[in-house]
Amino acid sequence: MKKEYLKLEKIEGPLIILSGIEDASYGETINIKVDNEEVRTGKIIKIEGDKVIAQVFEGTAGISTDNASVKFTGKPLQIPLSKEILGRTFNGVGEPIDGVYQVISTERENINGRPINPVARRYPKNFIQTGFSAIDALMTLIRGQKLPIFSGNGMAHNELAAQIVKQAKIKGATSDNFAVVFGAMGVRHDDADYFRKSFETAGVLDHVVMYINTADDPIIERISAPRCALTAAEYLAFTLNMHVVVVLTDMTSYAEALREISSAREEVPSRKGYPGYLYSDLSTIYERAGMLKSREGSITLIPILTMPNDDITHPIPDLTGFITEGQVVLNRELNQKGVYPPIDILPSLSRLMKDGIGAEYTREDHADLQSQIYASYSKVQDIRSLSQIIGEDDLSDIDRLYLDFGRELEGKFIAQGKNENRSINETLDLGWHILSILPVTELDRMKTELIEKYYDYNRER
Prior knowledge:
Elongation Factor Tu (Ef-tu), domain 3, 7-stranded antiparallel beta sheet
């Protein structure tokens, strides 16, 4: 028989503490009745002997130690799943906020998921065309990959993510088996509306499911929002065999919520006050992306995080980089120049692109072109530093050609319109056209036969 506990021992911020509890489980949900009327939901986050600490999703305002009773459900937080979730909007704990009915389904899944057995994983290989030259040519997104966007406050990361979702072309995906799952943590209302309107304008809203926790929603929901989103993605990918792109923003808000809860639990802090388990906690989110050998579907994850003070060594981007397979780094200087998307190509990379490019997937010159652009643009940075010391007029002729190459690469290759969708062949041809500013003798990363086939000998220099 289920017991009802009529008295709380203590309330600390969003946490309630009960003692004398029997048979409680970590992660179990609880129902809290306040003044015998309002019912709130909570989740057990710590058990010490017969003492239980639980976080309340709706917050503890109005709750005292004497006016609340608690019942334990014996189950973790679960959300109902069916194909009807497509086109719907939910809050951070899976409740509808679009004014429509709750999804009715016998399928209910624990939002914490289960770790994917590494042996059961299929190695990601298929190229995803995003329509962005900088990404497709230099840090190629692969189906089933985790590729985060490292940004900063005020930069165009939302526009970039929305355009990737609108333009993404996955081999084998059609309108019937392609879906987008969008999870937002601590975002402003206008950011949430921007994504919703972008998907609606692109005509993909009926293939999008959104889990939104806004900045004025309970901070506890931020911990659950990405897990609800990934649980929905796993259902669509591994039960309905769909190709799913998951966008999570902003992982920095998620980590700060984790830090606040850790502080309320009086845990010993680690770097910059974040809990010592931040790495393992982030991995329980990121590692849910991928493909299974026994399933046709896939989950490709694009988490967005804003780096505090644009510091890439901050614990959140630093640990994210360890777990994920590369990163797309946005540059504030390019953003201030009006370059969109302001992608800084030198610190950006995709660790899986080597297996998803080449004659079978993109074109035979792709790998060499990527290597040459990186090498040449790296030299541009050195020459720019030198020109600030001695002046551009005193540079050699070849150095001035490198500066021209850098300007064209940023202004015509990296930069593109907000509705411009380039094919991979257009991107590679444009890369060759810009590289042709440099003489053949400078192309030391290229095979001779590729230079003879693609180099623009008629390019004015």
